[in-house]
């Protein structure tokens, strides 16, 4: 019986050393350990947000840049029923089509014509300078910006 009492006394002795440490901890030592608890949280936050941004950059479809293809458009008809070709745009009279700026050949390989926007003199689109007034047209490669891909059907798309 005395052995049980000794065990109980040991338990109370142990509790009397543990409980004060839990109830009134050494705050100075804990504050010194604070960076050890905060640093992993900060690193975890940085890794998770960086990972999220990386995944978003990989998976989110953005605008697409495509080189403008030489897709001609039909020339609008004038009041006299003949096609009207605006000055400064290459055109083909055989196809009655207006080509994008910078085009020099039609889809069939025919040379395109262009009317000078300054003096309306018609020349080959391959020539950059107007023979009549000397106006030089410098065409750049057209770039089209396409819209981003639409969200998947079903209405559950996330932005
Ligand atoms: Zn001209």
Tell me what the structure shows.
The structure is a single chain. The protein is rod-shaped and about 125 Å long. The chain has helices at residues 2-23, 27-32, 34-59, and strands spanning 64-67, 73-74, 91-92, 97-98, 113-115, 122-124, 143-146. It is of the alpha+beta class and 159 residues long. A 3-stranded antiparallel sheet has the order 2-4-3, with no helix packed on it. The mean pLDDT is 85. The chain folds into 2 domains: 2-59; 66-141, no CATH class. The protein contains 3 helices and 7 strands. A hairpin with a 6-residue loop joins strand 5 (113-115) and strand 6. Helices cover 34% and strands 13% of the residues. Residues 116, 118-119, 121, 130, 132-133, 135 line the site of zinc ion.
Present the secondary structure layout.
Blueprint: H1 2-23, H2 27-32, H3 34-59, E1 64-67, E2 73-74, E3 91-92, E4 97-98, E5 113-115, E6 122-124, E7 143-146
Antiparallel strand pairs: 1-7, 2-4, 3-4, 5-6
The structure holds zinc ion (ZN).
The site of zinc ion (ZN) has 8 residues, from loops.
In short:
By secondary structure, the chain is α+β, with helices and mostly antiparallel strands. The chain has helices spanning 2-23, 27-32, 34-59, and strands at 64-67, 73-74, 91-92, 97-98, 113-115, 122-124, 143-146. The protein starts with a helix and ends in a 13-residue tail after the last strand.
């Amino acid at each position: 019986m005395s052995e049980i009492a000794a065990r109980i006394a040991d338990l109370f002795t142990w509790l009397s050393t543990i409980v004060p440490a839990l109830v009134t901890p050494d705050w100075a030592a804990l504050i010194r350990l604070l960076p050890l608890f905060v640093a992993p949280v900060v690193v975890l936050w940085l890794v998770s947000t960086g990972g999220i941004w990386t995944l978003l950059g990989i998976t989110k479809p953005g605008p697409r840049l495509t080189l403008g293809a030489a897709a001609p458009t039909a020339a609008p008809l004038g009041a006299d029923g003949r096609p009207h070709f605006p000055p400064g745009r290459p055109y083909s009279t055989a196809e009655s089509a207006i080509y994008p700026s910078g085009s020099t050949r039609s889809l069939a390989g025919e040379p395109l014509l262009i009317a000078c926007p300054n003096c309306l003199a018609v020349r080959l689109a391959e020539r950059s300078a107007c023979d009549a007034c000397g106006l030089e047209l410098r065409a750049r490669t057209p770039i089209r910006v396409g819209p981003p891909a639409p969200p998947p059907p079903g209405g559950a798309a996330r932005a």
